[in-house]
Write a structure and sequence with these properties.
2 copies of one chain form a homodimer.
Chain A (H helix, E strand, L loop, with lengths): L2 E7 L3 E8 L4 E8 L3 H13 L3 E8 L28 H8 L3 E6 H12 L8 E6 L3 E7 L2 E2 L32 H5 L1 H8 L12 H20 L3 E5 L8 H13 L8 H4 E2 L1
Parallel strand pairs in A: 1-4, 4-5, 6-9, 9-10
Antiparallel strand pairs in A: 1-2, 2-3, 6-7, 7-8
């Protein structure tokens, strides 16, 4: 039996999994993301129980995804200082001589949606996760897209809602999309989790206005067939119809958007 | 000798050209864009003097660029009513049985920059023209990119500058990028052409703020290696350094942008 390894390296926790050649999950391991010294040996120990054929890594960013670069596989200017400039991929390559793929956590999620999720029939689409941060994975022509570095579209600069007096929580941009619409941004306004706001709280219209602006600017720039929502905040089922409504108001009939039932997805 | 035809179909004028197999311009023809009834016979008449091998068309948008669509080659919801739903490509296909390529005017310009312009070494980049309108062509993996429809990134939603009291000239979005930063938007503010403003007019800082926001949001979304500026307004040589400065202020060191000398180009 052949085995394949996968890692979702998040800023809060690491999730590792081994899948067998039939595509069945063999084992799963989770641990908090503390420091490389503490965390990395645990991950390597987990994979050591298997002879894996390959290892796919989706990592929190910004990261260096360019194979020709001298810092390929490193984590770059993350606010998580212990991980800054850490050679994440290299640590696994030293431990295992297997084929590796290294991309952003959201690109890995987008790829997963294409292989066996809600976007199996799509060529060009986005995956957006709204949780601790906001991340966007981009699939172009059924391949993970990177470009010069890699998309960081969760930090899009958007317009403030007139009724919103929060100054924003992004350490770099303050009131970018992540600074206004991520989980911590909501929590900073209400001193409680997004999860604990009522479904009909008027804030959801503001949140939808921010996400609709982002989706609209993405649509104008890369014209995706669909945008798939993931992450804690987007578990709010009332959000997607609100975003759809705001989106139509922003568009004013200008561009042809995909049918609303298929455009915004969970 | 073999000949190849090309058309830049603009909202104001049509430019046709025939090139020979050595890549030398054989002949060029220009006429105003009035109505299909009046304009189309002139274009067809021009190409009739040659036995062309193929015809490449870059057309003002929005247009249908998807070969599998029943309205492939048509002009769509343009504000120029006479051309709305007009089968532009089909009119040429009826007249000439040659291979055709049909894309947006800005995609054609972007492609030209890749073949023999300033982006011959680039894989992923944007071409932005700032003139009567603002259009953006997108090259991904050295191919013209369309997506679900095609990019319309000249209409990006951006933040208004605090010192700007103009309400915007876009008939659909009012104060989108095109509505705030295109030639007609500048003219509407000052009752004179952008060309006639002094080089050190404080307005150029506002214009740069708008363009920098757009470039930054493009960079966050598709991470291009460069952005090439074309069109009348970008002939203002003072603009690019101002955009660069605004761009750095917006980024706050967050994403790695290409070296500033190669990132923004004329």
């Amino acid at each position: 039996m052949k085995y394949y390894g996968g890692i979702e390296a998040g800023g809060t926790k690491m999730i590792c999994a081994v899948m067998n050649e039939d595509g069945v999950l063999a084992e799963r391991f989770e641990c908090p993301t503390t420091t490389p010294e503490e965390t990395m040996p645990k991950l390597i120990h987990f994979f050591n129980s298997y002879t894996i054929e390959s290892l796919g890594i989706g990592c929190f960013g910004p990261i260096d995804v360019h194979k020709s670069s001298s810092t390929y596989g490193h984590i770059l200017q993350t606010p998580k200082k212990a991980w800054r400039n850490f050679d994440f991929l290299g640590s696994f390559q030293k431990a295992f001589s297997v084929e590796t793929v290294f991309t952003t956590d959201v690109n890995a999620a987008a790829y997963g949606e294409m292989i066996s999720g809600t976007a199996t029939n799509n060529r060009n689409f986005l995956y957006i996760t709204i949780g601790t941060g906001i991340g966007v994975g981009v699939i172009i022509n059924r391949e993970i897209y990177h470009g010069f570095t890699h998309p960081e579209a969760g930090h899009l600069l958007i317009r403030k809602h007139a009724d919103d007096h929060f100054s924003g929580s992004c350490p770099n941009h303050h009131d970018c999309l992540e600074g206004l619409a991520s989980g911590p941004a909501i929590e900073a306004r209400f001193k409680k989790k997004a999860f604990d706001l009522y479904e009909d709280d008027p804030f959801w219209t503001i949140e939808a206005y921010y996400l609709a602006q982002a989706v609209y600017n993405y649509a104008l720039t890369v014209s995706p067939e669909c945008v798939i929502f993931g992450g804690g905040v987007s578990k709010q089922r009332q959000l997607l119809p609100l975003i759809q409504k705001e989106l139509e108001q922003l568009n004013m009939g200008y561009i042809a958007l995909p049918d609303h039932k298929s455009f915004l997805r969970h």
